[in-house]
Amino acid sequence: MQLTLPETARALTTRRPRLAFVGLGWIGRHRMEAIRAADLVDIVALADPDPAAVETALALSPEARSGSGLADVLDLQPDGVVIATPSARHAAETIAALEAGCAVFCQKPLGRSAGEVRQAVETARRVDRLLAVDLSYRETAALRAIPPLAARELGRVFAVDATFHNAYGPDKPWFYDRALSGGGCLMDLGVHLLDMALRPLGYPEVTGVEAHLFAQGRPATSADVEDYAVATLRLAGGGVIRLACSWKLQAGCDAVISCDFHGTEGGASMRNLEGSFYDFEAYRHHGNRTEQLTAGPDDWGGRAAVNFARRLADGQRFDPAAEELVGLHDCIDRIYAAADLAACRDPA
Q1: For the chain, which terminal residue's Cβ has fewer other Cβ atoms within 10 angstroms, N or C?
Q2: Which GO terms describe its molecular function (predicted)?
Q3: Which run of H or of E encompasses 257?
């Protein structure tokens, strides 16, 4: 007999949740390794259209069943699904898994537009299932140190500068197809930057957006996949966020990643070390003096996935904080729209 929602919640308190993984590339496999090491759930199903990816994952979880896609794992009625497929499939697969009664942990972006994201979040609310997205940089020790300062010590935070330049760019062809990816570096990296900047401030209302996008050094059109993006977001209360991100920028190092918060009573920053994608430090600024708050290394990459597994094991259901994802993607939509408008006003 199929369990009702309340009965399912009681069942989860008496047994370990059963978790499935769909998409077993580097990210999916890394998140699986982190969740397996935490030993909070049972991994029961693995799916990917690439048999070699499935075989590699099965070496880590030989007890799991295998398949090629979401339908295969849903047949096993898992309690949760981790989705790490190409971006074009995220929203639809998330909704299908939620409708099947599963909690979902999805790679970013949850959707290619605010509309897709809204549908996924509304589905999670309706079926009362946990929904989380792998916005992994918010789990670094460096960025975790910022919200308490922003709330109590920095005074009124009136400006945030957020930067993510990647000297390489993605290696999968679908990233460069706008219909499949939803966008370029803004969708790939800007989604992290916006979360990094907005979350410590409590996700304030964005009242205005100005933006410019470039593709291979020229102003991008709506058909292009941008490789450089710069935007200014005006916030309710008068604050401002300046965002810049890129793929394949001649930056002299592998990556430039930073988020600087400027307040009336002080400042705070998180920055990567020596061009690293993985090592970060956080600082508190007092005038011309700086105090170090955190130092690397910090094993943060799988932390969001493990947090999801822990919340699932605790029987948590829909979290209203998921509604922030709609606002996040509304900002991205508005940046693209503002850049299109700027390109029309000032054509190349």
Answers
A1: N
A2: nucleotide binding; oxidoreductase activity
A3: strand 255-263
Q: Among 80, 74, 141, 68, which residue's Cα sits nearest to residue 106?
A: 80
Residue 72, amino acid = D
Which residue in 99, 104, 95 sits closest to 17, CA to CA? 104
Q: Does 11 map to a domain?
A: no
Residue 224 included in any domain: yes
Looking at residue 254, which CATH number applies to its domain?
3.30.360.10
Among the listed residues 220, 274, 222, 223, the one whose alpha carbon sits nearest the alpha carbon of residue 246: 220
Name the strand (E) or helix (H) holding 39: none
Q: Do 284 and 195 share a domain, yes or no?
A: yes
Distance, in Å, from the CA atom of 222 to the CA atom of 339, rounded to the nearest integer, reads: 9
Quote the domain boundaries for residue 73: 18-135+304-320
C-alpha span between 335 and 327 (Å, rounded): 12
Domain-embedded: residue 154: yes
Do 56 and 194 share a domain, yes or no? no
Give the C-alpha separation, 289 to 341, whole Å: 42
Kindly state whether residue 183 falls inside one of the protein's structural domains. yes
85: closest CA among 67, 101, 64, 63?
A: 67
> What is the CA angle 126-86-248, rounded to 5?
130
Phi-psi region of 274 (alpha: psi -120 to 50; beta: other; left: phi over 0): left
Residues 194 and 272 both lie in one domain = yes
Assess contact for 165 and 271: CB atoms under 8 A.
no
Residues 236 and 96 in one domain: no
In terms of residues, how long is the chain?
348
Same domain, 50 and 102: yes
Q: Can you read off the two tokens belonging to residue 217?
A: 């050094």
Q: How many distinct structural domains can be found in the chain?
A: 2
